[in-house]
Design a protein that fits this description.
Length: about 325
Amino acid sequence: MEFAICFKGFVEPNRAKALVRQAENAGFTYCWFYDSHILWRESFSAMAMCIEHTTKMRFGPCVTNPNTRDWSLAASMFGSLALQSNGRFDIGLGRGDSAVRVMGKKPAPLAKLEEFTHVVKGLVRGEEMQYGDVPNPIKFPWAQGYELPVWVAAYGPKALSSAGRVGDGLVLQIGAPTICKWLKDQAIAAGVEAGRDMSNYKVMVAAPAYMGDKKNSIEKVKWFPAMVGNHVADIVERYGENTDEVPESLTSYIKNRKGYDYSKHGQSDNPYLDFITEDVVDEFCVLGEADEHVQKLNKLKEAGMTQFNIYLDSGDEEKIIADYGEKIIPEFS
């Protein structure tokens, strides 16, 4: 299993540089950034900065979307950062959540996500591509054939199908092993049905980790299931509460959810946290003492997860990185 960290754009630049150096030295192999340019500072400039302070760590947005930027601009950034990092650049991709909804816009349809994947991978590779209402084909004369890895974020059946058919990996923002296995199996089955070789398909679990007393840890990360609940609410709205297409264990915890404040997306002071129980927080995150982290991560690994991406949003970030470097990552080397 690989290990990653994930930043929001409010981390001060000097601290971000220090954190990525610390994480790389501790054995983390990926650094991801939220990509919501209104809620937090622009992520790609921060990635470019951090790339220059590492030598092995891979970088990427977790996740970007097809609606925020013109596709040629997005592909040019992806290809430029891949070149600048000597091939250490991936992207996570979703339909668009906080980045577009905070403006009152709707997420992209899945067909648009799939087309975006095809177009940007082709452009970064150096191929001539055409899209949307752009009249002229586009080709980057400077492209060097980089094969851009695309991880697709998904929960619902149709999004999981897209992830399996066009993605190189799957992003799951939830740390519950049973649910993760079900979601992963859906994506892989869709890829196999489409005739793809899924033997090297990657699956990321993105969730907070906090070490120490369980009760204190739960309070630190209570914001996370609320963020997940916002995504699940979309699925319930589309498919209904009682459906065979989504596991009941994923939908049941949002029954008492009353709303969501996008201006507080992924933050502990979001006012819509009352429906979250301690059991849900414990199930969705990786909490407790070091041995409990190892036990939970082994369950996730057995469920087919290939990467654990820690959302560094709950305080004590330097300590979390140090503890993982000393006590957790060596157990999975």
